[in-house]
Amino acid sequence: MAGLNKVMLIGRLGRDPEIIHFDNGGKKMTVTLATSERYRDRDGNWQDQTEWHNVVAWGNLAVDIAEKRRNYVKGDLLFVEGRIKTRQYTDGQGVNRSITEVVAEKMNLISKSGGPGQYLADPGARQSPAVQPDTSAASPADPGEYPEYHQPPGTDDLPF
């Protein structure tokens, strides 16, 4: 029977990505990602539970991050898609250890640190580039061209 090893996470970076350069020119990117879940306990109080994930990337994704074509920093909200891998290693004291990692195949920025919640709550706050208004589209020459957007509703238009 075939299996499926796929993980999708949305969370905030716990630190800036670290890049490891290999002698053969290859690169490896490592970072931690925090995902949070909020729920009410038995007493009705809100509780936050945060999980930390070790994320690694190889190949073109690691190269893009190393060469700053993708500039991720601590606190950025990211979507990460990849697979789970557990590996064993021996630490500096000779103790055998294991670590579980998400091997990233895709990483997409959702918002820079300070994020979308900030600009929604404070209209004067810095907006993420992903949500900047598109000013390239031509605006109508005559504002009366779309009167339904410029006229307040009359009492006849209310549904109640």
Question: Poorly predicted ranges (pLDDT <50, ≥5 residues)?
Answer: 117-153
Strand content: 35-45%
The number of helical segments is 3
Number of domains: 1
Average pLDDT, rounded to a whole number, is 79
The share of residues in helices is 10-25%
Per CATH, the superfamily is Nucleic acid-binding proteins
Please report the total strand number as a whole number: 6
Distance between the termini: 58 Å
Could you please say which CATH topology applies here? OB fold (Dihydrolipoamide Acetyltransferase, E2P)
CATH structural class: Mainly Beta
Largest sheet: 5 strands, mixed, barrel
Order of helices and strands: EEEEHEEHH
Decide which structural class fits the backbone. Answer: mainly beta
Please identify, by name, the CATH architecture.
Answer: Beta Barrel
Q: Reading side by side through the largest sheet, how are the strands ordered? A: 1-3-4-6-5
Radius of gyration: 23 Å
**Coarse morphology:** globular
Describe what this molecule looks like in 3D.
- A five-stranded mixed beta barrel has the order 1-3-4-6-5.
- It has one domain: Nucleic acid-binding proteins (OB fold (Dihydrolipoamide Acetyltransferase, E2P), Beta Barrel).
- It has 160 residues and is mainly β.
- 12% of the residues lie in helices and 42% in strands.
- Residues 117-153 have low confidence and may be disordered.
What secondary-structure arrangement, pairings included, does this model have?
Elements (H helix, E strand, L loop, with lengths): L6 E7 L4 E4 L5 E14 L5 E13 H8 L10 E14 L5 E16 L3 H7 L25 H4 L10
Parallel strand pairs: 4-6
Antiparallel strand pairs: 1-3, 1-5, 2-3, 3-4, 5-6
